[in-house]
Amino acid sequence: MDSFADLSEKSIVIILALAFLLAVAVLVLAFVAYLYKRQQRLLRRQEMIYRDIARRRRIKASDKAEVFERDNYTCQICGISRDLMDSYCEGLGDYLLLEADHIQSVAQGGSGDDIDNLQCLCWRCNRKKGGSKTNEEVMDMIDYGIDYLDTED
Ligand SMILES: [Zn+2]
Fold first, then answer.
1. How far away, in angstroms, is 76 Cα from ligand 1 center?
2. Angstrom distance (rounded) from CA 103 to CA 114
3. How far does the centroid of ligand 1 lie from the alpha carbon of residue 79, in Å?
4. Which pLDDT belongs to residue 146?
5. Closest CA relative to residue 56, chosen from 106, 117, 98, 14
């Protein structure tokens, strides 16, 4: 029964090889599952951070009104104001789109609800400022063709 012993020895080798492959497959799957879970956890944390920033970026209507009043409805970068537009044509100032802007953006750690971190900007300067530039950097970029600030002496 030499061939039988030979056959069973071969089967044992094949079974061992299959068991080894199965173990490797299980380990690989476990590792992939671990990576997937870790990725999901990171994504959830990232989403929580984004939500927190979005929540803190919101400006209360009362704060906005206070900032506009304090800054006299004047863009703190280019100097265009409701009064200036009204001086050209009564009522024109109502068409000036002013926005309350976080001086230091919330994403960069600026306070979300501190009036001192808010300023009045026209929509044009605010788009240019985005989330990372300073007023001075925007001033260097813009050329609207009118020196609004010079009209005040
Ligand atoms: Zn402006």
1. 7
2. 10
3. 6
4. 64
5. 106
- 118 secondary structure, DSSP code: E
Ligand 1 (single-atom ion) residues, CB below 5 Å:
75, 77-78, 122, 125
CB 82 within 8 A of CB 68: no
Residues in the chain predicted with pLDDT less than 50, given as ranges, are 151-153
Model pLDDT, residue 153: 47
Q: What is the pLDDT, as a whole number, of residue 3?
A: 62
DSSP bridge partners of 98: 122
Predicted local distance difference test score (pLDDT) of residue 113:
82
Q: Which uninterrupted H or E stretch holds 18?
A: helix 2-57
Q: Phi/psi of residue 101, each to 5°?
A: -120, 140
Alpha carbon of 55 to ligand 1 centroid (Å):
25
- The CA 68 to ligand 1 mean position distance, Å, reads 13
Report angle CA 90, 96, 99 to the nearest 5 degrees.
145
